[in-house]
């Protein structure tokens, strides 16, 4: 990658000089996240003949080719989207060492759904309980117990009683501590109105281990396909490729608020079949990531019917609130989202229903190889599913914290949606859920050509220019997939509210300048 | 109508993989426990589940990190030692927003630096934090590395037999081939180079490209500690045969004899100098789950890469980034483990007292258990030099083997199930780890509390003697 970009950079410097494009050249380093490179040299993956040994055991020539391919699941292009992470790291460094070297004095991170890194505060009650469970000695002494609310103390005692020997440092049951799963099952029932079985719940270190387990079970070869929404969160494309399967895309309809059309599902299924691919499962991301749309109940029903009729496993990230017995369903939940946003804890679970006992055993077996998920994350998952209730001491403060975060998120979403919709050539669907906006941008021909000239995808080019001019970090749409020829970028709504006006004004100014330069 | 995911259309590799540690015996033990039977779980190296207390210092630090409002209180210094407060502030400052924020996918840079410093102090050679990746437990790291090596069933991984079945299960799951090399029980579970060479030739003659070699040092389930000479041989062997060496060193703190203290594969490699030290590819694994910490539930682990090319490191980083980041509290436990209280720190004395207490007791328990097993006439048990397990060989009479066959069970599974039902002791049959044909073992841990050890060993002996009486019964009369 690096040699490609550097090579083109050398060519370009002699050909044209321009503020924005030189910005791209100066700051482009090799991408680390969201790569799609077509460099054929990386795909050798040959198997050496009997008894031979390659020059060095693991090099790019001998590494598992699925690792190399991973992230290629997004349809290949000739362009190289760039890495927001590496470029922003470099800029951060430069700002530190040389303040005043850029037209902004701080980076504004709108790229990753990592609320606490942007100042969102954890929910106090949850942290109280977690701290008490981490160091139960605090419960034994009045002077330390006094720091905590009475209901947090009570909850900690309850939770500790669910641990054999009150040992929170021990491996638990592979699926997670039984008592915590009971709590989660009750929480699911309270939320959905359908009973949930604690034995169907597997607590995991965040969502990705759960996805890996299911992909491992489903994918036998590249002839096995998994239907994934485009745009999608690249955990799916990444894990499908890593496990050697095929991603079968279905496009969400931007014009209907990123709606999921059954006709599109059927269409893609047929196309896959005609290519000899056996479609094994359907992934539904609800609320959407990066798109943010929430599926209507009728839509959910249609999806369930579709899976039943076509014999597909339904993989629902996060919630499909439609209970149905005849369907094989894996629902994923995570503590990284919502008003709690506890990404660093790696807490989550999958609820597995509608599978035969033999398959349940196999799921358990694969999960057991990693023994169990982290205990603190397990406890947090149970707290999220059973927060303070109306009569609890912490209820008022808990509600206040939760409402403040949610209403602020709603305000920020609206402010950013409005600014995107006000920009020339940009439209942005409402963010109904989740923490992202996914505006679409019509780039003038001059801009797409300038991007091509530096071997960058047009949306990546726009994102890079935006970064260099304003310090605003977003993720180009090519990382998530989009209808070919369309360009988007994902922007979180997470920077603190007081930063939003700065983002709005810088973005507006930049966009005008960009369009002035590249308008046809 | 058949379900979309049925046994028939399940990935074959999943069907093939087995992981006995949480398999049949454990499931049966859990059932019995539900029915009210008292079970002593010695099936997994899980110290806190058997009464070992967490070290105080790390728990204080993590609680302060978990609830930073404590740090804001003016009186916090009255209830928490000053060094725990300082350390909590230090780790919080290293994170991107406290425990609740994703860190760098490779782990918090400041913690990786602490680990690099620890490795340098331990081995005498500098270590690069950029080549240290933190993971949710060492097992995830092992799986990631094996996944980057194994391309298909023509790729073989040398694995010791007996071995911790994470390796066999992962190799199966990834569709690779396990190339066994047998440890020699009569030579204290020693590693024989001749044996290794034979294993590799045999594999190659079957068209397998041997890609890597796993050593577990100290061994699991066998406990043996590799000597420096042995490690040198292994490194040379890997170099000559173009193998990546995977050094599972998670039990490096658990050493119960003084003849062979722990020495890391990396140190030996660097000591050798010359081209091998710059070319031999090595990945070393460590964790907070074992040692005297035993914080299994935190899921804190790391791997360190030596002589892995930068582009390969990038690819491994890419795969790590799919999972976003390892859990942050687990990362802090790692930092605390490699950078514990020092002499002069307020918490130092207590920390040393607690850790020494645990290690010395483990050493005693290793001896009690070995002696207890060896006092049974049909049991031979090598001394547990390190790690947390005892792996006695149980000689089973022919009648018992027949009875097992009739019951549709592998003989050691049969024995262990009977042991469980009679005594509540939940072990893992040796077949779960691999053993020579016709030789049977079981794995138990040395973790039950010291005061519980004598009754456990008595209980075992009683069961074993009765079992032998039952199944040896007619041997003396066979010629009549």
From TrEMBL, chain A:
GO terms for cellular component: cytoplasm. The keyword Hydrolase does not apply. Keywords: Acetylation, Aminotransferase, Cytoplasm, Phosphoprotein, Pyridoxal phosphate, Transferase. Pfam families: Aminotran_1_2 (PF00155). Pathway: Photosynthesis; C4 acid pathway. One of its GO terms (molecular function) is transaminase activity. Belongs to the class-I pyridoxal-phosphate-dependent aminotransferase family. Alanine aminotransferase subfamily. This is Alanine aminotransferase 1. It comes from Abeliophyllum distichum. The lineage of its organism: Eukaryota, Viridiplantae, Streptophyta, Embryophyta, Tracheophyta.
Automatic annotation (TrEMBL), chain B:
Pfam families: Aminotran_1_2 (PF00155). Residues 88-446 form the Aminotransferase class I/classII large domain. It catalyses: glycine + 2-oxoglutarate = glyoxylate + L-glutamate; glyoxylate + L-alanine = glycine + pyruvate. Pathway: Photosynthesis; C4 acid pathway; Amino-acid degradation; L-alanine degradation via transaminase pathway; pyruvate from L-alanine: step 1/1. Its cofactor is pyridoxal 5'-phosphate. CDD domains: AAT_like. Keywords: Aminotransferase, Pyridoxal phosphate, Transferase. GO terms for cellular component: peroxisome. One of its GO terms (molecular function) is alanine-glyoxylate transaminase activity. Gene3D superfamilies: 1.10.287.1970, Aspartate Aminotransferase, domain 1 (3.90.1150.10), Type I PLP-dependent aspartate aminotransferase-like (Major domain) (3.40.640.10). Belongs to the class-I pyridoxal-phosphate-dependent aminotransferase family. Alanine aminotransferase subfamily. Homodimer. This is Glutamate--glyoxylate aminotransferase 2.
């Amino acid at each position: 990658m690096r040699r490609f970009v550097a090579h083109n950079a050398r060519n370009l410097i002699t050909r044209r000089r321009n503020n924005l494009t030189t910005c791209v050249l100066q700051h482009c380093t090799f991408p680390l996240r969201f790569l799609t490179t077509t460099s054929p040299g990386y795909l050798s993956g040959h198997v050496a003949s009997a008894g031979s040994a390659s020059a060095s055991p693991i090099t790019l020539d001998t590494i598992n080719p699925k690792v190399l391919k991973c992230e290629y699941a997004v349809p290949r292009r000739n362009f190289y989207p760039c890495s927001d992470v590496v470029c922003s790291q470099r800029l951060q460094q430069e700002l530190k060492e040389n303040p005043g070297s850029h037209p902004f004095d701080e980076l504004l991170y709108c790229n990753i759904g990592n609320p606490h890194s942007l100042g969102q505060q954890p929910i106090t009650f949850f942290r109280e309980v977690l701290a008490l469970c981490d160091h139960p000695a605090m419960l034994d002494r009045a002077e330390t117990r006094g720091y905590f609310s009475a209901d947090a103390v009570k909850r900690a005692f309850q939770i500790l009683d669910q641990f054999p020997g009150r040992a929170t440092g021990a491996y638990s049951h592979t699926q997670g501590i039984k008592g915590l799963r009971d709590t989660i099952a009750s929480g699911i029932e309270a939320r959905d109105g359908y009973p949930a079985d604690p034995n169907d719940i597997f607590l995991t270190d965040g969502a990705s281990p759960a996805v890996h387990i299911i992909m491992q079970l489903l994918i036998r070869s590249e002839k096995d396909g998994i239907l994934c929404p485009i745009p999608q969160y690249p955990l799916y494309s990444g894990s499908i490729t890593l496990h050697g399967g095929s991603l079968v895309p279905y496009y969400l309809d931007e014009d209907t608020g990123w709606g999921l059309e059954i006709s599109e599902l059927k269409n893609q299924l047929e196309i896959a079949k005609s290519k000899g691919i056996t479609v094994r499962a359907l992934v539904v991301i609800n609320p959407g990531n990066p798109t943010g749309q929430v599926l209507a109940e009728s839509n959910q029903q249609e999806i369930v019917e579709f899976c039943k009729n076509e014999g597909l496993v339904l993989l629902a990230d996060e919630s499909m609130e439609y209970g149905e017995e005849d369907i094989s369903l894996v629902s994923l939940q995570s503590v990284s989202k919502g008003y709690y946003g506890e990404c660093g804890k790696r807490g989550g679970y999958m609820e597995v229903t509608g599978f035969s006992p033999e398959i349940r055993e196999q799921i358990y077996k694969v999960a057991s190889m990693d023994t169990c998920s982290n205990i603190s994350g397990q406890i947090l998952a149970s707290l999220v599913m059973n927060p303070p209730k109306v009569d609890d001491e912490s209820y008022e403060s808990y509600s206040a914290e939760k409402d403040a975060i949610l209403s602020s998120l709603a305000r920020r979403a609206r402010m950013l949606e409005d600014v995107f919709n006000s920009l020339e050539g940009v439209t942005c669907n409402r963010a109904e859920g989740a923490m992202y906006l996914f505006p679409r941008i019509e780039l003038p021909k001059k801009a797409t050509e300038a991007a091509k000239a530096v071997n960058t995808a047009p949306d990546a080019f726009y994102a890079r220019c935006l970064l260099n001019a304003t310090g605003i970090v977003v993720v180009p749409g090519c990382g998530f997939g989009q209808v070919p020829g369309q360009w988007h970028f994902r922007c979180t709504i997470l920077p603190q509210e007081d930063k939003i006006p700065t983002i709005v004004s810088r973005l507006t100014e930049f966009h005008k300048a960009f369009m002035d330069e590249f308008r046809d | 109508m058949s379900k979309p995911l049925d046994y028939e259309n399940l990935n074959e590799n999943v069907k093939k993989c087995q992981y006995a540690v949480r398999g049949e015996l454990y499931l049966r033990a859990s059932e019995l426990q539900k029915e009210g039977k008292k079970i002593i779980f010695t099936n997994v190296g899980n110290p806190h589940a058997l009464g070992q207390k967490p070290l105080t210092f790390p728990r204080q630090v993590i609680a302060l990190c978990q609830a930073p409002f404590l740090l804001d209180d003016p009186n916090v210094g009255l209830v928490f030692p000053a060094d725990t407060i300082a350390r909590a502030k230090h780790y919080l400052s290293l994170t991107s927003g406290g425990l609740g924020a994703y860190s760098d996918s490779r782990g918090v840079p400041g913690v990786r630096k602490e680990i690099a410093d620890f490795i340098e102090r331990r081995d005498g050679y500098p270590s690069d934090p950029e080549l240290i990746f933190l993971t949710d437990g060492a097992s995830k790291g092992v799986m990631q590395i094996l996944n980057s090596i194994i391309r298909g069933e023509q790729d073989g991984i040398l694995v010791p037999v007996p071995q911790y079945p994470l390796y066999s299960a992962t190799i199966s799951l990834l569709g690779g081939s396990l190339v066994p090399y047998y440890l020699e029980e009569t030579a204290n579970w020693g590693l024989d180079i001749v044996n290794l060479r034979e294993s590799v030739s045999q594999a190659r003659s079957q068209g397998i490209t041997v890609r890597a070699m796993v050593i577990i040092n100290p061994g699991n389930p066998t406990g043996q500690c590799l000597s420096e000479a042995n490690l040198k041989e292994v490194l040379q062997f890997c170099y000559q045969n173009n193998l990546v060496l995977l050094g599972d060193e998670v039990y490096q703190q658990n050493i119960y004899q003084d003849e062979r203290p722990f020495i890391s594969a990396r140190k030996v490699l660097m000591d050798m100098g010359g081209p091998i030290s710059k070319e031999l590819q090595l990945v070393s694994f460590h964790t907070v789950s074992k040692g005297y910490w035993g914080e299994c539930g935190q899921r804190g682990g790391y791997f360190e890469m030596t002589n892995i090319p930068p582009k390969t490191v990038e690819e491994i980083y890419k795969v790590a980034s799919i999972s976003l980041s390892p859990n942050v509290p687990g990362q802090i436990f790692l930092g605390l483990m490699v950078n514990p209280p020092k002499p002069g720190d307020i918490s130092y004395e207590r920390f040393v007292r607690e850790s020494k207490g645990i290690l010395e007791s483990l050493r005693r328990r290793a001896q009690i258990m070995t002696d207890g097993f060896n006092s049974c006439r049909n049991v031979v048990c090598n001394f547990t030099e390190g790690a947390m397990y005892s792996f006695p060989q149980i000689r089973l009479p022919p009648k018992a083997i027949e009875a097992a066959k009739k019951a549709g069970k592998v003989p050691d599974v049969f024995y262990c199930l009977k042991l469980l039902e009679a005594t509540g002791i939940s072990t893992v049959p040796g077949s779960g780890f691999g053993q020579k044909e016709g030789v049977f073992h079981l794995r138990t841990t040395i973790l039950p509390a010291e005061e519980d050890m004598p009754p456990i060993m008595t209980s075992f002996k009683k069961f074993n003697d009765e079992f032998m009486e039952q199944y040896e019964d007619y041997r003396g009369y066979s010629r009549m």
